[in-house]
Amino acid sequence: MKNLHQNAALWMAVSLAATLTACGGGGGGSTTPPPPPAKTTPTITVTPSASTITTAQALSVAVAVNGGSGNAVPTGSITLSSGAYTSSATTLASGSATVNVAAGSLAVGANTLTASYTPDSSSSSTYNAATGKSSAVNVTAIATTVAVNQASIGPAISDKLLGMNMAAWYDPTTAAVVPAFQAAGIKAVRWPGGSWSDDYHWATNTMCGNTPNTNATFANFVNDLVTPGSFDVALTANYGTNAACTGPGDPTEAAAWIAQAKSINAHVSHMTVGNEEYGSWEDDLHSKKNDAATYAAAVGTASTSGYYSLIKAADSSVLVGVDVNPGNSPAWDPTVLANSKYDFVEYHYYPQAPGSESDTYLVQKAANDLTTEINTLKTELATAGNPNTPIYVGEIGSVYSNPGKQSLSITQGLYAGQVLGELMNDGVARATWWIGFGNCNGTQGNDSSSLYGWQNFGGYNVFADGPSDTGCAGAGPIGTMSPTARAFQLFSKVAVNGESVLTATVAGDTANVRAYAATNSGGTALVLFNLNQSVSAPVTVSLSAQTTSSDVLVETYSKALYDQSQNNVWAAPTTTDLGTKTLPLALTLDPWSMNVVIIK
């Protein structure tokens, strides 16, 4: 029995050792995990909807990503590029995507489109990134003509379109303001500053709930800014608060202001009763706040002792106006226009909300929408029995609050130039942009990469406040013109008193070429816009009654000039004297450019 047990124990020991060795239990062996399967590079097929287009045509491009037989359908996104054009990323659906290339995005000539595939987390373990190319798409420049009818005389032009707001929070004795305004061709100013007007008390330079600049007295405003600059003045009367800040505005305060203005020859031509009184954001201590009937009664008529009659008694030459908001406050305009006396109406235009800014909308459509609003207002005035009442656009901007990088960009400059053209064509006699100096917003606004521009700050002011304003220090030395101010500078060559609007008709690339025209000292002035960001626009200009010109002068402000601001260079427009020319005149408009053409 002893030998049997010894043999059994020996057998068990040998078996256990073998088992431990096989399992690695003795540390004497290991295994290598198998390598991951090789990734597949998918095939990318790029199919444009057409092989030949013009710069005025859009292009649809189908992209298919094929992983091959037996593989899962690729997921992820694709981008499309050619030259300076790159699309945003488009998510694949069942391995396919369609990219719509906007008109004018591709350069003139042969364009090969490259689709770049990026797998998402679901496909990244299976597929490599990949690219595919299309066959060539040939892009030809569309023939665009601008025909000016010199016999079709439109509205008389007023240089008071070239206006800027200023506010009582800014020091009007600042020496740089007048030369900057004069260099930009500014002819008119509005004061004391938007919503501040309903809290500002001119006689004491005080505010209800705020503090004006200590130098912002009315006397300083006139002596240091208005008189040396020979600017026409519009004042906003305080409708909201009395001097004690305990009740509503006092019309005798407004009348006394006009009497003082007359005594010192302050060049006040307009006074509006209150600022945006239809809006709940305005301070208003009347028993019924921001109420149309209350407002109309306070303005009064020529025979009642309201704002209108008292201001007129102080100076009969001053035009008295009321606030309007066409189509947006339906209970306001009809009541005010039918129940008060006024010599003009004041309208404010800001087409965008903060955070929702769009370069495409601002450049392509916002200025045209202003004309739609002006036409609505004209209809309201006709309904009220006052069809020819002058319209003053007292505030203009691109976004109604919290401006970001777009405010310093070429995009707002192009919008501003078109706004001036629309106002000229609409017969508007006076306008003031919000604002000249003193309203930097720093980095608080929309600085999204979806907006074109080199700045990471914004501001309402279109002239630089200088490096002391640290929030906008990159805007240049004090008085430096932004693209918006450059638009005013260029348009000052066209918006000249005594001249008249002419009809300019664009044929061809009507999506990107805009034209405005006017008489000009015996010649003809045009303002031509190329609203295409990346492609030049060849244009032929003809005049109905002229086949030669003794001289042609072209001034241009463009994206290429603005782009220098990425290096803190705020370049001026270029000027080219073409000399004697036979008409029609062939020109090439730079991408994203505003061009003033004077034909003698």
What brief labels describe this structure?
single chain; 600 residues; alpha/beta; Immunoglobulin-like; TIM Barrel; 3 domains; nine-stranded mixed sheet; eight-stranded parallel β-barrel; 12 helices; 22% helix; disordered N terminus
In CATH's first tier, which class of the largest domain applies? Alpha Beta
What's the architecture of the largest domain in CATH terms? Alpha-Beta Barrel
Q: Can you give the mean pLDDT?
A: 94
Number of domains: 3
Strand content: 25-35%
Runs with pLDDT <50, length 5+? Answer: 1-27
Structural class: alpha/beta
What is the assigned CATH homologous superfamily of the largest domain? Glycosidases
Helical stretch count? 12
- Widest sheet, order of strands: 30-29-32-27-26-25-12-28-31
Radius of gyration: 33 Å
Shape: globular
**What level of helicity do the residues show?**
10-25%
CATH fold node name of the largest domain: TIM Barrel
Count of β-strands? 32
Largest sheet properties: 9 strands, mixed
N→C terminal distance: 133 Å
Write structural notes for this entry.
The protein is of the alpha/beta class. The chain folds into 3 domains: 98 residues, Immunoglobulins (Immunoglobulin-like); 106 residues, Golgi alpha-mannosidase II (Immunoglobulin-like), CATH 2.60.40.1180; 338 residues, Alpha-Beta Barrel (TIM Barrel), CATH 3.20.20. Helix 4 runs parallel beside helix 6 and helix 10 runs parallel beside helix 11. It is globular.
